[in-house]
Specification:
The chain is mostly helical. It contains 15 helices and no strands. Helix content is 75%, strand content 0%. Bound molecules: 2-acetamido-2-deoxy-beta-D-glucopyranose. GO terms for molecular function: NADH dehydrogenase (ubiquinone) activity.
Length: 342
């Protein structure tokens, strides 16, 4: 949470933009909320100590303004042809309305801006971009999500781009970006089943992302090889970072497996077998490279210098982070136990 009054104000207007957008009952209101949200996120991104933020915010502004004007144009067309207050309908234009929203949330064929914008931002803004900024567009998408060729194409390309794009990446921001694109695809699949599935997936995904960002932020590590050279205190951090990464990859003993499990089961019940198989194969591919990174860092590349700097002594952040971390370690077991007790 920022401690600067301007930033607090901007955070509040950003959140109210999201709330306006998801609670409005006409498309104009939804558009207005998205615009308030965008206009308060842009100044939040800027930081005069880091020149790359300017580039990122400019790119983000251009892309999002393009998506907004596209959305506004389609809404005007819809008002002229149909009426103003229906948000869900059966016609072809659901596909056209979904396109700018997918662009805003960074789903696959429209993801090209996402990695380069993320690369120039501070960790807190990365966190906001990966979680909060996806909320409003995805709720709006949920009004139109149906099982058709368009949605399946988006879901499949998102998971494929997320899996293939993450290969051989060493920048943690890039890895998190591709994992975010991938999870957007899975969240759209969850949205196809129903909204509650999406809420569950989104909550768990946001918590895991928040844990990773909280662990990385105090150390300012941007690349995987920086985490390999750590002294004694930071071994905890290394362990927590890689296990949370594996949790995001959906490896069974961790919490990240729970939403994946539920989505797989629900999609098979609903006869979406082909698309489900492709998604599972792609997630295997990602697990391979996540495991490759964490295996070498856990077992082989462990260097321990004689001197010791303690970063985490008496730190509240450490308590908070380890709480989130243990949540990600234990809650799958707790959830399955609760289901078995009932
Ligand atoms: C994509 O999401 C699935 C389901 O949570 C996961 O198994 C897979 O490892 C993820 N891939 C990436 C790149 O994060």
């Amino acid at each position: 949470m920022p401690n600067n009054p301007t930033k607090i104000l901007l955070m509040l207007t950003m959140m109210s933009g999201i709330l306006i957008s998801i609670s409005s009952n006409s498309w104009i209101g939804a558009w207005m909320g998205l615009e308030i949200n965008l206009m308060s996120f842009i100044p939040l991104m800027s930081n005069n100590k880091n020149i790359y933020t300017t580039e990122s915010s400019l790119k983000y502004f251009i892309i999002q303004a393009m998506a907004s004007s596209f959305l506004l144009f389609i809404i005007m067309m819809k008002v002229l042809m149909e009426d103003m207050f229906t948000m869900e309908n059966e016609s072809i234009n659901t596909m056209i309305i979904m396109t700018p929203l997918l662009l805003k949330s960074g789903a696959a064929p429209f993801h090209w801006w996402f990695p380069s914008v993320m690369e120039g931002m501070s960790w807190m803004n990365c966190l906001l971009l990966m979680t909060m900024q996806k909320m409003a567009p995805m709720v709006l998408i949920s009004y139109m999500m149906k099982m058709n060729t368009f949605s399946s194409t988006i879901i499949l390309t998102s998971t494929i781009v997320g899996a293939v794009g993450g290969l051989n990446q060493l920048s943690i921001r890039k890895i998190l970006t591709y994992s975010s694109i991938n999870h957007t695809g899975w969240m759209l699949a969850a949205l196809m089943i129903n909204e509650n599935m999406w809420i569950m997936y989104f909550t768990i995904y946001s918590m895991l992302t928040m844990t990773i960002v909280m662990i990385i932020k105090p150390f300012n590590t941007s690349f995987i090889n920086q985490t390999l050279l750590m002294n004694k205190e930071m071994i905890t951090m290394k362990f927590m970072m890689f296990t949370t990464l594996l949790s995001m990859g959906g490896l069974p003993p961790f919490m990240g497996f729970l939403p994946k499990w539920i989505i797989i089961q629900m999609m098979i019940i609903n006869n979406m077998n082909t698309i489900m198989t492709t998604m599972v194969i792609m997630s295997l591919m990602t697990l391979y490279f996540y495991l490759r990174i964490s295996y070498s860092s856990f077992l082989m590349l462990h260097i321990e210098p004689k001197w010791n700097i303690s970063y985490y002594k008496n730190n509240n952040l450490m308590k908070y982070t380890s709480m989130m971390f243990s949540l990600s370690m234990l809650s799958l077991m707790i959830c399955t136990m609760m289901i078995n007790i009932y």
